[in-house]
Design brief:
Length: 617
């Protein structure tokens, strides 16, 4: 191998020096300027000694002034050689000053870009960290802002421009109250970027699924990066888009991570909403921080009493279950004894409202309806559209309906109805159909169905899919009007902003999957102990939320207290948690749903009103 020459070595050294950035460039420029000043001063002393005062030092000063201020030569007097020497200094100064200004401008621009990215380490404590960026970030941040009445910090790390993140958050959440939001640009999958978030002092971490293809891979890589830190972080909450990736995510995150199965949770909510209109509204009211929230509190004074007695123990809080050594149970058997160490699960406005009542509530015995349960009959359900979670929806629906029920799937999706074997109660039929075409919908004979579920087509991006869903809903509502038919319509959508548009269609229920998952993540970020409660709530086993006709519980048209409603539900082995007014089902934001009313609140139910209960099927 040929040995490098001195020239090549010098050039290589010079190139490496120049690549070190703006500082190195300015250093070389300063060296050039110093050489110029010394050289010009030496020439002036050598060639024109009579025109220099104070010898070499005076020559250096004159050279420095003309280098830094090239225009000074215009006022010079002297011999031609002296002026020529000073002209050299001035020309060199023009080169130096222009190049210096350019380098300084470029360096400052680079520094400003670095500042925009937010590369400084966060020094907050007890802050909530959000890793990643998606539309769910707006739901989570908005809910955390509502949940906090004290000064707090939410920090976000995402592979997105810091200023762009801040602008988007200001547009969507203009009032952050006493909560400060700090954004940093970086990749959550890299340990060095995670160091910026001061994870060791954080309160909780939320890992978001980004939009685009294979979002779970990004979440799993982030969980691996967190696990590599060997416990140097608080509890982690993450959402997994596809149920099939849950096992890998659990392995990657370890025991300190709580995972939310987005597909499974959304599928359960869609099925429950199709069976009981208003279910999604009730769940969103329970999940948000606007009004009633779920709390876990120990009350030693209730030890030895039964769950039935605890139902009316609070005036402004609603008991929904118990957390025992064996786990969480919502709406347990009414004779369940509350043991020492058991925790009561309640819905309350805030901590201060969870107080034991001073006296027993008034109950109108003669207003309680003693009706039997209705028997499940075979029914027909129509699913319009198809997506990745549709198979899960069909299987859950199969567990709810009576044997002999029929499910027809009408979709133009190539995977519609695929791999659905072993259904016990449903007979499945698949038809090719453009779900936005009026004639195609009319050919289905929609009037023969009791329930219609409109799914978002995952072949299209979210906004376009929501547009197609709206078109299908409008067609269905017009068909109902023209043909005088009645069937429940439940729709799945992506964007919460489209719900206002969907209200025109008067659909019985709109399930905003991304919003529900965002609300659930926000709840778990604030209180990870609620994970068992919500896990039980969305599980098909055990008790679930049902909006049921008020006339099944109390006499319509007669004033009664909510305590009377609770007593009527108790005799059926159910827990009443609220009601829904039929006359207000189109009024946002609660759509007629009232949770956790005071026990002494006087109510008069009308036809179509619902009582919201926790009950077995």
């Amino acid at each position: 191998m040929a040995k490098a020459s001195v020239r090549e070595r010098a050039r290589y050294w010079f190139d490496n020096t120049m690549s070190r950035g703006t500082g190195a460039l300015i250093g070389w420029l300063a060296a050039f300027c110093a050489s110029l000043i010394v050289g010009v001063g030496g020439l002036a002393v050598w060639l024109t000694p009579g025109e220099i005062d104070n010898g070499f030092s005076g020559a250096l000063w004159a050279s420095l002034m003309r280098t830094l201020s090239p225009g000074k030569i215009a006022s010079d007097d002297g011999t031609a050689p002296y002026l020529a020497i000073m002209l050299i200094a001035s020309l060199g100064g023009l080169f130096f000053v222009s190049l210096f200004v350019g380098l300084l401008s470029a360096g400052l621009k680079t520094k400003v870009e670095d500042l925009r990215k937010g590369r400084s380490r966060i020094i907050e404590s007890q802050h909530t960290v959000i890793l990643g960026w998606s539309d769910q970030v707006f739901t989570i941040v908005a809910e955390l802002v509502k949940a906090r009445n004290h000064k707090s910090v939410i920090s976000i790390l995402a592979d997105k421009d810091k200023v762009a993140m801040e602008d988007d958050l200001r547009d969507r959440i203009p009032d952050t109250r006493r909560t400060r939001i700090v954004c940093r640009t970086g990749r959550p999958t890299e340990s060095g970027h995670l160091d910026l978030m001061n994870l060791g002092a954080a309160r909780s971490i939320v890992v978001l699924s980004p939009s685009g293809e294979d979002p779970d891979a990004h979440v799993i890589k982030t969980l691996l990066a967190l696990a590599k830190r060997r416990g140097d972080h608080p509890p982690v909450v993450a959402a997994i888009a596809k149920s099939g990736n849950m096992a890998a995510a659990r392995l990657a995150g370890g025991p300190g991570v709580h995972l939310v199965d987005s597909d499974d949770t959304s599928a359960r909510l869609i099925v429950q909403s199709s069976r009981q209109s208003g279910m999604s509204v009730v769940c969103m009211d329970l999940l948000n921080f606007d009004d009633g929230e779920i709390y876990l509190r120990a009350f030693p004074s209730l030890t030895g009493k039964t769950y039935s007695q605890a139902l009316t123990a609070f005036e402004t809080a609603t008991v929904i279950g118990l957390k025992r050594a064996t786990g969480v149970e919502l709406n347990p058997p009414m004779d369940t004894a509350i043991a020492d160490g058991d925790v009561v699960i309640v819905i309350a406005q805030d901590d201060s409202s969870i107080r034991l009542a001073q006296k027993a509530p008034d109950i109108a015995e003669d207003a309680i309806v003693r009706a039997g349960r209705t028997r499940l009959e075979p029914e027909r359900t129509l699913v319009l559209g198809w997506n990745g979670r549709a198979g899960t929806i069909v299987r859950y629906l199969d567990g709810y309906v009576a044997p002999g029920s029929v499910l027809d799937v009408a979709a133009g999706h190539p995977d519609a109805g695929g791999n659905l074997v072993g259904l016990r109660n449903l007979t499945l039929n698949v038809k090719d159909c453009d779900t936005t075409d009026r004639f195609a919908l009319e050919s289905l004979g929609v009037g023969i169905y009791q329930h219609v579920i409109v799914l978002s087509d995952d072949r299209f991006e979210a906004h376009h899919a929501d547009t197609r869903t709206l078109m299908s809903l409008l067609q269905l509502r017009d068909m109902q009007t023209v043909m005088h038919e009645r069937y429940s319509i439940v729709s799945e959508m992506h964007d919460e902003n489209n719900r206002e548009l969907a209200e025109v269609t008067e659909a019985d229920d709109i399930v905003i999957s991304d919003t529900v998952i965002g609300l659930l993540l926000a709840q778990l970020a604030e209180n990870r102990h609620l994970s068992e409660v919500f896990g039980y709530l969305f599980d098909s086993r055990g008790s679930e939320i049902y909006p049921r006709p008020s006339s099944d519980y109390v006499t319509d048209g007669r004033p009664v207290t909510f305590a009377t409603v609770i007593e009527s539900a108790r005799r059926r082995g159910e827990t009443a948690i609220g009601y829904r007014r039929a006359a207000r089902v189109s009024e946002p934001p609660h759509f007629g749903v009232v949770l956790n009313p005071a026990k002494s609140a006087e109510l008069t139910f009308e036809a179509g009103d619902k009582v919201i209960v926790l009950a077995e099927r």
